């Protein structure tokens, strides 16, 4: 089994999501000790945001491609290969301004590649990244999973849409909400998420 572990929290040691993604990966490893783990911290090692020059480089003569763009394209190929090789993806995703970190969006732009993870057909788009499991560790300052504020959630809803488009139907969410409401609320939210992780028993990870 190959596990791809991605973190995107920008607050360093104050970020909650890395603590929870580490717990998820540890839980899976406890049940699958031979599993390999590939780790990316998209904040300490950010990917450049997608550019027109990057897109045009795919069809350009390599000799005509700027060295910096060529390096970016090569890194994108590595990122895509990591995703394609993964059986289970563990994704740490804080909600920022009702959406996700821009660093994570840059990563998504590198794995959503026509002909690799999806294709267009006469019947409509078809996801090609099937057979994977994605575990989303969602952290939020407020409560957005229910009630009027649910309409402001462009974080989990976006991720379900984009991974579904890529053919991933096995998506599980571990959620910690209300982290910014009070110190007690933060402690309880983290504890509840950790209890949820422990109770899931390896998340029935893809293999």
How would you sum up this structure in a few lines?
The protein is 38% helix and 20% strand.
Description:
Belongs to the azoreductase type 1 family. The protein has 207 residues and is α/β, with parallel strands linked by helices. It is 38% helix and 20% strand. It is built from six helices and seven strands, in the order βαβααβαβββαβα. The chain has helices at residues 17-31, 52-57, 67-85, 102-111, 156-165, 183-200; strands spanning 2-7, 36-41, 88-94, 118-121, 124-127, 133-139, 170-176. A five-stranded parallel β-sheet has the order 2-1-3-6-7, sandwiched between helices. Strands 4-5 form a two-stranded antiparallel sheet. Helix 1 (17-31) links the parallel strand 1 (2-7) and strand 2 (36-41). Helix 1 (17-31) packs parallel to helix 6. The longest helix is centred in the middle third of the chain and has 19 residues, at 67-85. The chain is globular and about 60 Å long.
């Amino acid at each position: 089994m190959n596990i791809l572990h991605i973190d995107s929290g920008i607050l360093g040691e104050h970020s909650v999501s890395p603590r929870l993604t580490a717990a998820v990966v540890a839980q899976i490893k406890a049940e699958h000790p031979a599993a390999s783990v590939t780790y990316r911290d998209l904040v300490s090692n950010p990917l450049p945001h997608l550019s027109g020059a990057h897109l045009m480089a795919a069809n350009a003569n390599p000799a005509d491609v700027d060295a910096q763009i060529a390096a970016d394209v090569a890194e994108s190929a590595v990122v895509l290969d990591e995703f394609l090789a993964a059986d289970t993806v563990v994704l740490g995703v804080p909600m920022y301004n009702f959406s996700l970190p821009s660093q994570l969006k840059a990563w998504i732009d590198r794995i959503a590649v026509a002909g690799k993870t999806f294709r267009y057909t006469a019947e409509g788009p078809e996801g090609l990244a099937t057979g994977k499991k994605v575990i989303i560790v969602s952290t939020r300052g407020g409560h957005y999973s229910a009630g009027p504020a649910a309409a402001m959630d462009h974080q989990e809803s976006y991720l379900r849409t984009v991974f579904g488009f890529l053919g991933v139907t096995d998506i599980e969410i571990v959620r910690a909400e209300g982290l910014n409401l009070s110190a007690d609320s933060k402690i309880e939210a983290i504890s509840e998420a950790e209890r949820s992780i422990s109770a899931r028993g390896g998340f029935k990870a893809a293999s």
